């Protein structure tokens, strides 16, 4: 539930009405820490791991700052209504001011319900109405097949594959998806 006095003007429902998407607030930290420290989520993409509540609070502050600076960013996903259970975080955010980055993380208990497609569609719709000239992209760990399928279902196609420089596993690979062909410079900037 949003904090008292929190700016919730960006609360929307997904097209099915099953999810409420709202701006993150500091009181989301505990629920998000539980999600991002769940080993089932981390095994698909170790870079999602939040090793401490302090880490989650820092990430959450960056997400809140994005909303304050740009007027959009990643939403906290609630099941049912504004008082519903937190099921994840996702949407589109600006990436290096050259593309939208689509991302979503869901609690493992919420996998397989189509929530990823719902938040992806809402995020892509907002991105396209805000800055349609920018491509919509998604970066995903090669081992995260669940996310790859969800990204492909919303119409993004694989543009690039290469080493995942953020993963401690030297053999880890990452994939870059996009809604259009990307230039070499765009691909380089988005995969550094």
Task: Characterise the protein shown here.
It is a single chain. It contains 6 helices and 8 strands; from the N terminus they run ββαααβββαβαββα. The protein is of the alpha+beta class and 192 residues long. An 8-stranded mixed beta sheet has the order 1-2-3-4-5-6-8-7, with helices on both faces. β3 and β4 form a beta hairpin. α1 crosses α3. The N terminus is likely disordered.
List the helices and strands and how they pair.
Blueprint lengths: L11 E2 L5 E4 L6 H8 L2 H6 L8 H18 L4 E5 L6 E10 L3 E8 L8 H16 L5 E6 L3 H9 L3 E7 L9 E6 L5 H8 L1
- Overall mean confidence score, pLDDT: 90
Order the strands across the largest sheet as they lie in space.
1-2-3-4-5-6-8-7
Please give the count of helices. 6
Q: How would you classify the helix and strand content by structural class? A: alpha+beta
Distance, first to last CA: 36 Å
H/E series, N to C?
A: EEHHHEEEHEHEEH
Poorly predicted runs: 1-8
Shape: globular
Reported for the largest beta sheet, the result is: 8 strands, mixed
Beta-strand content bin: 25-35%
Count of extended strands: 8
Rg (CA only): 16 Å
Amount of helix: 25-40%
């Amino acid at each position: 539930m949003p904090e008292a006095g929190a700016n919730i003007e960006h609360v929307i429902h997904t097209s099915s009405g099953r999810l409420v998407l709202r701006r993150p607030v500091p009181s989301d930290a505990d629920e998000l820490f539980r999600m991002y420290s769940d080993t089932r989520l981390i095994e698909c993409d170790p870079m999602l791991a939040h090793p401490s509540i302090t880490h989650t609070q820092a990430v959450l502050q960056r997400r809140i700052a994005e909303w304050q600076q740009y007027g959009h960013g990643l939403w906290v996903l609630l099941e049912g209504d504004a008082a519903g259970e937190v099921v994840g975080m996702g949407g589109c955010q600006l990436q290096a001011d050259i593309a939208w980055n689509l991302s979503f993380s869901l609690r493992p208990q919420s996998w397989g319900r189509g929530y990823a497609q719902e938040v992806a569609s809402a995020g892509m719709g907002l991105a396209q109405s805000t800055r349609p000239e920018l491509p919509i992209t998604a970066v995903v760990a090669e081992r995260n097949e669940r996310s790859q399928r969800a990204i492909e279902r919303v119409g993004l196609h694989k543009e690039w594959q290469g080493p995942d420089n953020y993963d401690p596993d030297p053999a880890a690979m990452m994939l870059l998806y996009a809604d259009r062909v990307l230039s070499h410079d765009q691909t380089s900037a988005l995969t550094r």
